[in-house]
């Protein structure tokens, strides 16, 4: 199988996990339960779940007032795009 199939599968899975974790964190915030650490959310974003997490954050209005997330995740996405371009198209 071509390598891009593995990369696409990985990105689908990690984005699904990032979406679920973001929704769980929002739910826990509403119920005053133990939250997902911000570092864990940023870790998921950095390892490929950034697009799913950003879209979910906007959709459910979660962490949209935190500069760390509203600036950091788009920076992560930009770095991921540049890295992917460099790795796959150069």
UniProtKB/TrEMBL annotation:
Keyword Membrane assigned: yes
Key words of the record: Membrane, Transmembrane, Transmembrane helix
Residues annotated as transmembrane: 7-24, 40-60, 69-88
Molecular function terms, GO-annotated: nucleic acid binding
UniProt-listed InterPro entries: Cold_shock_CspA (IPR012156), DUF1294 (IPR010718)
Keyword Aminoacyl-tRNA synthetase: no
UniProt-recorded name of the protein: DUF1294 domain-containing protein
